Amino acid sequence: MAASLQLLQFKPLKPSFSFFSRRSVSPICSAAPTPSKSQRSYTITLLPGDGIGPEVISVAKDVLLLAGHLEGIKYEFRERLIGGAALDATGVPLPDETLSAAKQSDAVLLGAVGGYKWDNNDKHLKPETALLGLRQELKVFANLRPASVFPQLVDASTLKRAVAEGVDLMVVRELTGGIYFGKPRGFDTNEDGEEFGFNTEIYAEHEIDRIAHAAFKIARKRRGKLCSVDKANVLEASILWRRRVSAIAQEYPDVELSHMYVDNAAMQLIRNPKQFDTIVTNNIFGDILSDEASMITGSIGMLPSASLGASGPGLFEPIHGSAPDIAGQDKANPFATVLSAAMLLRYGLDEEKAAQRIENAVLDTLNKGFRTGDIYSTGTKLVGCKQLGEEIMKSVESNVPSGATV
Ligand code: NAD
User: Fold this and answer.
1) I need a labelling partner for 256 at 20 to 30 A (CA). Which of 113, 243, 329, 340 fits?
2) How remote is the CA of residue 323 from the centroid of ligand 1, in Å?
């Protein structure tokens, strides 16, 4: 099982495209594997989930296997049910068996959960409940969401080329606190007999401190700029957030800290996204802003994420959902899940070479013009999820150097 609290490493690569560039080697916050480096054998829990989840996980598993094999890594894969698939089979969205397999592995790779079929279920029986439960049980408090515009896909962005080109930002979202978990919460009836719903935005110092430390360390390895996003003009929890982030900044004099209100941040992401390097924010603002940032890149199907805690396995997943509208039609873009597998190798297992091999293969496949429908443009080659997977595998095998790909 994954253990110690040190290695979220950013190693120097030699890319000409900065999506994958990390500037030096240094611990961030978590996710080092227990197996010694010489052992190089890992247990990975695969959670395909619902909709397009199984399609994209199947591609990512093959890519992981091949890249691992070529770099001398062995895996034991454990596939378990989650979300709607688990509900149908066991009556709960996150079976104990799934949770225990996840906790006992070195890393967890998740597809997506949810679908029309379960939309009207009670909250505790919704597939999405499994995600919140899994994140909470794995104690993964830092969610890393890179949003970088691939040079090959810059025209897929809805923003003007001049605005989108060169965007390379990382949203560090607090994942286990705030309004999504705060109590009290619920429904009640007021004195007029009207029903109301309520939630609580709540952050304790230690929750802010640990995500701030993680974000400063990430910013330090990127371009040294950290923007903390809050709503400190209105919310007490945000006032504390700003106070703690400012205090912790004293320990990182090499990082330039700025603060921004969330409404302004939402505007600035569209107006001038290149101004951002690393953004740190709370759970709900991070949820919204990282989805907004993802649209700058042109497709939700390109974006991976990593969720890391102080110890134990990290959770790696594409940011997109289960896309029920295209499920089972071989139309899903598997790149986001394949890139999540690369993040798993880098941040979860400290297997930098295999991670690079996969990332280079993604760039190479894009360079060769292969596209799924969501990123297709005239002059490129439209392929399905399976064929795109095969093309990625060919590039993994030929191990193109990163410098040669873009
Ligand atoms: P979605 O991300 O599933 O889909 C939004 C749009 O993007 C759809 O048109 C879809 O076809 C497209 N899309 C998404 N991923 C794609 C891919 N890899 N390749 C090509 N096209 C892709 O979001 P949604 O429609 O709001 O949600 C659908 C279901 O997924 C809901 O049940 C929702 O709760 C769930 N969901 C799950 C997660 C998760 O598992 N992490 C995240 C978001 C939504």
Assistant:
1) 340
2) 4
248: left (phi over 0), alpha (psi -120 to 50) or beta: alpha
The answer to whether position 307 is within a domain reads: no
Which of 61, 126, 217, 231 is flagged as catalytic? 231
Domain of 236 in residue numbering reads as 146-299
Residue 170 shares a structural domain with residue 292: yes
Q: Is 300 in the pocket of ligand 1 (CB under 6 A)?
A: yes
Running along the chain, 406 residues long, what does each successive block of 10 average in pLDDT? 32 33 41 56 98 98 97 96 98 98 98 96 95 92 92 88 94 95 97 98 98 93 95 98 98 98 98 98 96 85 92 94 97 97 92 94 96 93 98 92 47
DSSP 345: I
Q: Known catalytic residue: 123?
A: no
**Residue 177 belongs to some domain of the structure:** yes
pTM score: 0.83
Three-state secondary-structure class, residue 93: coil
**Is the shortest distance between the CB of 113 and ligand 1 below 6 Å?**
yes
114: Cβ below 6 Å to ligand 1? yes
Whether the CB-CB separation of 323 and 332 falls below 8 Å is answered with yes
Residue 188 annotated to the active site = no
180 is annotated as an active-site residue: yes
> Which residues, 6+ apart, have CB-to-CB distance to 332 below 8 Å?
52, 55, 56, 301, 323, 326, 372, 385
- Residue 165 in domain: yes
**Residue at which a domain ends, from 241, 270, 299:** 299
